């Protein structure tokens, strides 16, 4: 059950339903998770400073169980996500940051319990 949080100073209008669904599909493919389990939140139009510049930028926070826990995994994920983000958002690699957070099943609540028991 991956969680993708997009934080950006790009306008919300750039994140059409099509773009958000494409991001969801791409992340599902990269992480090897079912598309209907990926959760995407976009926070657009934020005042953001990255590397001393207010130029357009994006930070992606990727949290998931079992697939973002090692440097080797995240290096592969990073390469694929950067390829998608630079193409889809028209940003250079120096205006994109990714943060990976491994989760445990007991840290995610669903259906009145936690994923450990589902």
UniProtKB/TrEMBL annotation:
SUPFAM superfamilies: Tautomerase/MIF (SSF55331). InterPro entries: Macrophage_inhib_fac, Tautomerase/MIF_sf. It comes from the Eukaryota. The keyword Acetylation applies. Belongs to the MIF family. One of its GO terms (cellular component) is extracellular space. GO terms for molecular function: D-dopachrome decarboxylase activity; phenylpyruvate tautomerase activity. Homotrimer. Keywords: Acetylation, Cytoplasm, Lyase, Melanin biosynthesis. It catalyses: D-dopachrome + H(+) = 5,6-dihydroxyindole + CO2. GO terms for biological process: melanin biosynthetic process. Tautomerization of D-dopachrome with decarboxylation to give 5,6-dihydroxyindole (DHI). It is found in: Cytoplasm. Transmembrane segments: none annotated. Its main location: cytoplasm. Its EC number is 4.1.1.84. This is D-dopachrome decarboxylase. Pfam families: MIF. It comes from Acipenser oxyrinchus oxyrinchus.
């Amino acid at each position: 059950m991956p969680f993708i949080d997009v934080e950006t100073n790009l306008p919300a209008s750039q994140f059409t339903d099509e773009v958000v669904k494409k991001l969801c599909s791409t992340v599902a493919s990269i992480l090897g998770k079912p598309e209907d389990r990926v959760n995407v939140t976009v926070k657009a139009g934020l005042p953001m400073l990255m590397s001393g510049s207010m130029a357009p930028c994006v930070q992606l926070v990727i949290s998931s169980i079992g697939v973002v826990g090692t440097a080797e995994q995240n290096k592969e994920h990073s390469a694929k996500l950067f390829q998608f983000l630079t193409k889809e958002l028209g940003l250079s690699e120096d205006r994109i940051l990714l943060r990976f957070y491994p989760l445990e099943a007991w840290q995610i609540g669903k259906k009145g319990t936690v994923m450990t028991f589902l």
